[in-house]
Amino acid sequence: MTKLLVIGATSLVGRRLADIAPDATFTTRKPKRSGEVFLDLMHPEAFEGECFDDVIVTSPIWLITDTVLDMLWRQGMKRIIAFSSTSRFTKTFSPEPEERRIADLLSSAEARIEAFGATHDVDWTILRPTLIYDEGLDQNVSRIAQMIDRLGFFPLCDGAKGLRQPVHARDLAKAAVDVINIDATRDKAYDLSGGETLSYRDMVARIFAAKGKAARVPSFPAGLWKLGFGVIGVIKPGAALKNNVNMALRMNTDLVFDHSAATRDFGYDPAMFKPVF
Predict the structure, then answer these.
(1) In 183-198, which positions are buried (b, 16+ CB within 10 angstroms) versus exposed (e)?
(2) What is the full DSSP assignment across the chain?
(3) Max CA-CA distance within the chain?
(4) Record's InterPro entries (predicted)?
């Protein structure tokens, strides 16, 4: 039986992998549970784990440097499955420098893993999820739910017609385990979207329903959003996130990806968007 190492015990997908692959060894900078070991990706030379055949990376993929890859290879790694993001594509031309930087980091990290695999005889698979959620834990769906609880409504931009495909962390964890022993997935990258495509407005309405509340989703024109964020920028010039009006404007941008290749190669079958809080 091969040994599995999961890098990122506290990530959304890492938490779910603890249920799906309980015999795996999980790394974190603050081990708290049985089966967790210390690993600081900034200083991987201190890692003294056992030999592992398969590695699943749920931490930010750009932290997997050549030094980290070499350390894992010397400890027996023959297969690596790493989570990237479809943001690699959707934020490449973002007006926000920080978002473009993230897209560049994702792209470079994917290329680094592919190149390392080619030169060290390590099979790789890159998984690129769309909008990840896990009730009460994520910064996407759960943040919207928190705003609904706080305000009683959720403001939209220009009707929020952009399409979304939220995908649950448990479906991604299952996908990572499923690809390990399937030859068809070796040296490939897959986009992993959710089980249905719905507008941003409908996604928010679904969250209201999950909270047992009627949807209150007032819509304001883009110009008003720009004005509001501009005022925030004057009052709090250091609040980079609050200055990012593009987050609101993107409510009307389609962020849609096809996961049929994943379904064909390893039976990927994500659930419909039905959050439970």
Answers:
(1) eebeeebbbbbbbbbb
(2) ---EEEE-TTSHHHHHHHHH-TTSEEEESS--STTEEE--TTSGGG------SEEEE-S-GGG--HHHHHHHHHTT--EEEEE--THHHHTTT-SSHHHHHHHHHHHHHHHHHHHHHHHHT-EEEEEEESSEE-TTT-SSHHHHHHHHHHHSS--EETT---EE--EEHHHHHHHHHHHTT-GGGTTEEEEE--S--EEHHHHHHHHHHHTT------EE-HHHHHHHHHHHHHH-TT-HHHH-THHHHGGGS------HHHHHHH---PPPS----
(3) 60
(4) ComplexI_NDUFA9_subunit (IPR051207), NAD(P)-bd_dom_sf (IPR036291)
Looking at per-residue pLDDT, the higher value among 45 and 183 belongs to 183
Residue (of 81, 82, 83, 101) closest to 91 by Cα position: 101
Report the pLDDT value the prediction gives residue 244, as an integer from 0 to 100.
Answer: 66
105-119, 150-164, 242-256: range with lowest mean pLDDT: 242-256
Domains of the chain: 4-266 (3.40.50.720)
Q: Which of 12, 50, 11, 16 is nearest to 28 (CA)?
A: 11
Other CB atoms within 10 A of residue 235 CB: 9
Q: pTM score, two decimals?
A: 0.93
User: What pLDDT digit, counting tens, does each position of 3-49 carry?
Assistant: 999 999 999 999 999 999 999 999 999 998 888 999 999 999 888 77
Position 242 scores a pLDDT of 47
